What we know:
By secondary structure, this protein is α+β, with helices and mostly antiparallel strands. Helix content is 29%, strand content 17%.
Amino acid sequence: MNSTKKINLHILxxxxxxxxxxxxxxxxxxxxxxxxxxPGSQPKExxxxxxxxxxxxxxxxAREFAQELRKEIxxxxxxxxxxxxxxxxxxxxxxxxxxxxxxxxxxxxxxSDTVLDFYLKHKDAFQISSINQLPKDLRxxxxxxxxxxxxxxxxxxxxxxxxxxxxxxxxRTIGPDANGAFRRYLLDYNGVGLVMTHxxxxxxxxxxxxxxxxGEDGRTVYFQLDGDARYSDGQPVRASDFFFTFYFMRxxxxxAPWYNDFYGKDKFLKVTLFNKNTLxxxxxxxxxxxxxxxxxxSIPEHFYDELGGDYLKKYQWVQEPTTGPYVVxxxxxxxxxxxxxxxxxxxxxxxxxxxxxxxxxxxxxAQVIRxxxxxxxxxxKGDLDMFSLSKTDYWYEKLPxxxxxxxxxxxxxxxxxxxxxxxxYALRINSSKPPFDDLNIxxxxxxxxxxxxxxxxxxxxxxxxxxxxADGYGKRSHPTLQARKFSxxxxxxxxxxxxxxxxxxxxxxxxxxxxxxxVELLTGYKHLEDVLVVLREEAKKAGLxxxxxxxxxxxxxxxxSEKNHQVVFSAFSSFVELFPRFWxxxxxxxxxxxxxxxxxxxxxxxxxxxxxxxxxxNFTQTAVLEIDQLxxxxxxxxxxxxxxxxxxxLSKLIHDHAVYxxxxxxxxxxxxxxxxxxxxxxxxxxxTRDYAEFQVFWIDEDKKLLIxxxxxxxxxxxxxxxxxxxxxxxxxx
Length: 733
């Protein structure tokens, strides 16, 4: 009997049992199955009904069937080899996903059949080797040469009171509605990857891995996990969790195209397990920042087991076990009001070199305050510990150096200089929406945006105009490209090319059909409305009617990600990376389906039957074959020289496509904090996106009582700093 016939027989047998079991359960659903392993035993009073027991029995039979099936097809998938070690071989000598009998390797014995079959179907990407096969000449690193950046003076305790502009729509960190303001507390501030990027050097420090090594091929990194690493539910981090991470991140059930791509098989070629604490990850090519690219976080397989179509709903309000120090308890979710995170009392990394004296507050309370002006008032009352003062009106007018709270020693104003690519505050034009499907309109629009006046009037010259789509990446940023300047003459010239030649009675341009040149500008930044008002009034000079649509941040992001906008004013967080990102915002695969070249005709134009792809960061709906080809090449390139050249070419092509209007950048972060919040004396990280990112501050409860008493009694305190500048990472001092 051939394998196919055998498999069909197995299937028929299994199906027959399903039917027989179903009918058997219909006669008397009060019958109880004997407990497994003791056929003669009497059922306990707490035993489940026949139907429930049958379902479990069926699942067990299915698992046995799957095992037999794997035995039948093992040779076809290449997992059983003639020279494979016998079952008597020791664990350390046993390689491969399955043994000769079709049993999974001990490292995978816990896997569900669905997950295990996923690994088998992608056997080239998921491999298990003997620990004896680990390269002998690896040069292990452990971050011991790097300096700590926390303070031994830090105090534990208290509550960090912060705010968010909208209540989170989910506790998931992946999938629809997950990329909101609260995500930073769940993941960005709280997650631990394999290896962590040091904020003040080009080096790394341990994360889940206590040491790591670069392979001879230049594209494989080996990791030895910290044996102490635990999830917040107490379960250990296992090497096999990194198998599961790729199963998880590639799943369609996430509805997260960015993650599907980032963890895609064209990037991460292979994960190899050597034992429960040792693994390697192989990237598609050698990269100068390989360790950083490969240092992913682990997904707890024991929590998910496998994924199904119910993922989004099932985990909507359930926090995934984290390797970080803070968790959200169900009772600390106040719908529409606040979410509080609680510090784990037994966090596994609490006393390790680069984590001690960090994550000091016992609790983080993020309350919902939708209006930034209201949040500022709450801050001045002492009900928020910190507040961003990056907007110049807050820095110079609302909280000047002479403000009583500053002069009396209650508050400190701080400037942090850093060297991180700036968040890309910009206007992103949806090139698929009329009238922006006309290149002339897009170019005319860019010339009608007076960002120079914004920088002068709103930001008092403290900010600089961004030049390109990728400023702040050193040599990878285009050396000469400039943002299009504000010019009424040039704007009207290009609008005329698109048919808008005459002005109506209100001064707005109209075309031959009498249609006004009017577009809607969407944003979720209520606090930057004054910026948009300036742009709107200046645009009128060029005959453009700019209608402002200001939503709360989550709703605005959702609208843009669904591509239901004409223009969106937004900023993507910067990344501490060597290279700018182009695939996410400008590749056609994030604009339309189908994927790849299939969406283009032979002459390079878009097919008429393509479908808009939502939940991606291609807000401009850029779909240009030449740009796609260069991005594909850029992603695969390992030469720094070629990467730089391609980055320049892409910046120029995107500029010519005119879908991105550069806004501004700033070389610093500004914030105000009450003086019961303390930072390390020499703080000021070279690479940070947020003054709270590395969690090195602490809440001094004794100082808080002192300040509260002084305010109550009108007593001044010693203004030790008042205004403080951390400028050790300032460029061109």
